[in-house]
Automatic annotation (TrEMBL):
GO biological process, one term: sterol biosynthetic process
Organism the protein comes from: Apiospora kogelbergensis
Topology class, membrane: Multi-pass membrane protein
Protein known as: Emopamil binding protein
Classification of source organism: Eukaryota, Fungi, Dikarya, Ascomycota, Pezizomycotina
Listed PROSITE patterns: EXPERA
Length: 265
């Protein structure tokens, strides 16, 4: 910049191109308006969280504990014979239901919005109206959400639909988690574009760790449902085989009795 001014003093004119080029070199790059990756991604009307991370964690823990306590109380009132494992599965399916309002999340300051904005430091696609995330959340709201409540209700009333519904729900969870990880990691591999901040907390704890329960628990429940249905089908086959043998034995005895009656006549 000083060279251009010196040239103007001695030359009596301003070289506009040189001034523009010099100012461009001297000006620092614009600072991002938010902490999300990739840096500079458009997040309209973003407002930083006002609550600290410990406050959000305590609030989340209290909320989850209240939901679990309420659902356990209601479930035991309806069916006092429920086991602890059944109560745990009921609470799991109830907590699987959530609604995300992507259009106003960035500017919202309620508890759920601030919790979600903290998590999205590991995946900014929730704040940028990413087509994949919108599609997944729409499916979650209109299908997986009601299905999760149906699974919980079927366990409470000991319905025969429990395991068929549980298998469908678990497959949906596993498929969704696989797509969630795959779309982000494939994009990172081929384009070098990361939606997560690089710090250990955000990538390994938030992105990887917080989503693993939706792979591990559904896999366990899926295995349990398949094992239960297999055992029940084997029992049914044994009952049907026994019934068929009894009917054959009865028919044989009836034929013998009829034959002996005819001989006696």
């Amino acid at each position: 910049m000083s060279i251009v001014v010196w040239d103007w003093i001695w030359g009596g004119h301003i070289n506009r191109d040189a001034v523009s080029e010099s100012m461009a070199k001297a000006s620092p790059p614009p600072q991002p308006m938010h902490p999300y990756y990739p840096l500079g991604v458009a997040i309209p009307n973003y407002e930083a969280n006002t609550a600290t991370v410990p406050t959000l964690i305590l609030s989340l823990g209290g909320m989850l504990a209240s939901v679990m306590l309420l659902m356990s109380t209601v479930a035991l009132r309806v069916n006092p014979t429920l086991t602890k494992s059944s109560l745990a599965v009921i609470c799991w399916f109830v907590l699987c239901y959530f609604v995300v309002n992507h259009a106003t999340l960035a500017s919202s300051q309620n508890l759920f919005a601030q919790l979600w904005k903290e998590y999205t430091l590991s995946d900014s696609r929730y704040l940028t109206s990413d087509p994949f995330m919108l599609s997944v959340e729409t499916i979650t709201v209109f299908t997986e959400g009601p299905l999760a409540f149906a699974c919980a209700a079927s366990i409470v009333v000991d319905s025969h639909l429990r395991h068929p519904l549980q298998i469908i729900m678990c497959m949906a969870h596993l498929y969704g988690v696989a797509l969630y990880y795959a779309t982000s990691l494939v994009e990172m591999h081929f384009s070098g574009l990361s939606h997560s901040r690089p710090e250990f907390m955000y990538f390994w704890v938030y992105y990887v760790g917080f989503n693993l329960p939706w792979a591990i628990i559904p896999a366990f429940l899926l295995f349990d449902s398949v094992k239960t249905l297999r055992r029940k089908l084997r029992s049914l086959d044994a009952i049907q085989a026994g019934l068929a043998g009894f009917q054959a034995h009865t028919a044989l005895n009836s034929a013998k009795a009829t034959s002996e009656t005819k001989k006696g006549q």
